[in-house]
Amino acid sequence: MASPPHRDGLLTRARYTPLRDAFRLRLTGRLNLPRLVHNAGLPTPLADLVEYTARRTRLSRLERVDVAEELIAHFQDGLEAGRSAEALRDDFGDANQAARLIRRAKRRNHNIFQKLPRYSMYGLGVLALFYVIVAIRFFSGSPNPSHDYLADLNRVPAAVPHDQAAWPRYRSALVAMDDMPQWQGHETPMPGTESWPQVEKYIHEHAEQLSQIREAAAMAHLGFTATFHISGDDLDLWPAFDGGDSEVTDSSDRLLIGALLQHLTELRKMAMLLRYEAYSAAEQGEGELAVANIRAMVGIAEHAAEIGTIINQLVALSILGVANETTGELLKSNAEVFTDAQLTDMAHTLASALGGGTLQMDLGSERLWFSDLLQHMYTDDGRGGGRLTRRGLDTFATVMAIHEGPFGIDAPEFLQTLASPAAGLALAGRRAQAELYDRLLTRAEAESKAPLWQYRNTVEPEIRALASDPVQAIRYMPVTLMLPSVSGPYIQAEFTTMRRDGMLVTLALHLYQRRHGHWPDSLNQLVPTFLPAVPPDRFDGRPLRYALVDGLPVVYSIGANHQDNGGRPPSNVKHHEAMRWTKPEVAKDMRLNPGAHRHQQPDGDWILWPPQQDPRTEY
Amino acid sequence: MRVERELMRGAGPLAVLKLLQRGEMYGYELVESLARQTNGVLDMGQSTLYPMLYNLEAKGFIRATWREADTGRKRKYYGLTAKGETRLADESEQWQALAGAMSALGIVPNPDAEPAA
């Protein structure tokens, strides 16, 4: 028989009181299922059945009590009708099935707020499952670099027969030279500067090697191939690289971006030595040697551009700039040592350097870097597509020197690993990256065909817009970080064109002066005898400017302020500030709102000749 | 005779709705009525009845109210809603059509047929 009714203590009642009762200050304790069943006074088999069934429903405590109360009422009705407890228990059926069906039916009756946590759990479950699938795809994917972009990069130099390659000769000369000492003073060495005696001594001591360099520079091809490690005879030149990378034998594991272009530093160094020797030769009245060195500098510039990366091309432009500048200095200080034929020779050498005409930057080779990066980051579906891989993400982080986890978030290693598949979702696929990169680079190439005064750069604003959008910035991070600055190299090419043109005009002026005994009144008088045409000022497309100041010629561009100041260099800023490319509308705004701009507008022109005090700042 | 579960799944709710059409009933009363009026054919255990009642309630065909009975005990009474009335009418019509079809096939006797001599 059932025990007599029992009342709970205050704390137990509080524990089993629904909130709505508690808010009414009624400690009903009606959620206490065992107590409810006990107090119902049912025979033990039925009491156990009620409690078991109610519990098995796994519903809320309130709902369990509701189910229990109804079953209690049912059995009490049965007992009142004269049925035995055993018969009622047998008629009840399977308690487990009842609990399951009751649970299903009750939950169907839930309102949206009761269903919300359950649906949220379902949602989270679906998301978790989705993330697991993504993670499996992410971690199981592996990049399969199959294209040798290094071979593409080396296509031209690798085809040069060894006996026709200038690089072994350069290398031989460089190996035979002592280390160049640190020159004293801050100025570029030239006759009259503090460091000049030291420089001149070094030049004379290495005259034989410089002669060897001139001979090498006259050769058509450099024949230097980029590699991931220094080996063979090159180790004589760069012994510090010996053994540093000897274990790496499989170049497919290496990113093209790690290819060494160590030779560019040596080429620049040789150009500078030739420059010093040209000054020295001119001081000694050896015009022919000075001209030969100008010619050799141009040859080295050509060699630097044999591999077509932007870096190579920028170094080539820089060396051509050294040749221009050296020519300018020689004409200023030692013009008399040169014959007319030598001046003409210098003009022809400079005019034909790096293909002649308007110097242009070839951006095409940049595709190699990017395609190579993609093949190391993504899987390859054979149709240009692929998905990001864990190894690829690490590679990208290494290339970009991102030391934190995905999206630059610093977190413990396991969290980074856990979060890394999200990068696979966030970053665009291989094809999308390649297509965006190609579209932007193609447009940059088309835009860089225009002369500076018509230049319109739409690529960099688009990249800035992408980078400022948090979603797009992550989605296309490889593109936004890897697309080269397209305007910088372009402007460098334009400015080198104008420096060279300024030098061609200067050489023509000297030839005119020699023939006529005086300087011309206008540059038009140089055409066509000394100059095929007056080259344009890259700032406005009009002919380069010319003035006679104190009886001496000044060749100039209107420069950053877009105003003709009569060939007067700026007095308010350093001269190189006049060389800064500024759009006409910006130059106008600088005049109207000088305080609104970072740079002060120069009040003078960009003097192309004679050389100014700080022309080398750009190099 | 016990009815197969699949048949009971269709017939049970309709039978409950029909019983409730006459007035509110509580669980035990429903079980008893079903067993008595159907000669035990629709005698369903409580493990089937109560989930069925909760389902019908969830669908809005019936409503439940706790009330105190004459004995002083609380009981949950079930009553038909308007939606339940409509459902009952629809399903009754379908069952009649089904019974007609079964009769035409000779599975159940035709109630309009002359009794055999």
Radius of gyration of chain B: 16 Å
CATH topology of chain B: Arc Repressor Mutant, subunit A
Largest beta sheet: strand ordering of chain B: 1-3-2
Average residue-wise pLDDT of chain A: 89
**Separate helix tally of chain A:** 27
Largest interface, per-chain counts?
A: A-B, 25 and 25 residues
Largest sheet of chain A: 3 strands, antiparallel
Task: Give the number of helices of chain B.
Answer: 4
The CATH architecture of chain B:
Orthogonal Bundle
Radius of gyration from the alpha-carbon trace of chain A, in angstroms: 41 Å
Uncertain stretches of chain A: 615-619
Strand content of chain B: 5-15%
- The number of E-state strands of chain B comes to 3
Please provide a written account of the structure.
The complex is a heterodimer of chains A (619) and B (117). Chain A is mainly alpha-helical. Helix content of chain A is 55%, strand content 2%. Chain A has helices at residues 10-15, 19-23, 33-40, 44-56, 61-80, 85-92, 95-108, 112-140, 149-153, 155-158, 167-176, 196-205, 207-217, 234-237, 263-283, 287-304, 310-334, 340-352, 366-377, 390-399, 413-426, 430-447, 459-468, 470-475, 477-482, 487-516, 584-592, and strands spanning 545-549, 552-557, 606-609. In chain A, a hairpin with a 2-residue loop joins strand 1 (545-549) and strand 2 (552-557). In chain A, helix 4 (44-56) runs antiparallel to helix 5, helix 4 crosses helix 7 and helix 15 (263-283) runs parallel beside helix 17 (310-334). In chain B, helix 1 crosses helix 4 (82-104). Chain B is α+β, with helices and mostly antiparallel strands. Chain B contains 4 helices and 3 strands, in the order H-E-H-H-E-E-H. A 3-stranded antiparallel beta sheet of chain B has the order 1-3-2. Chains A and B meet through helix 5 and helix 7 of A and helix 2, helix 3 and strand 3 of B.
Defining traits:
heterodimer; A: 619 residues; mainly alpha; 4 domains; three-stranded antiparallel beta sheet; 27 helices; elongated; B: 117 residues; alpha+beta; Arc Repressor Mutant, subunit A; 4 helices
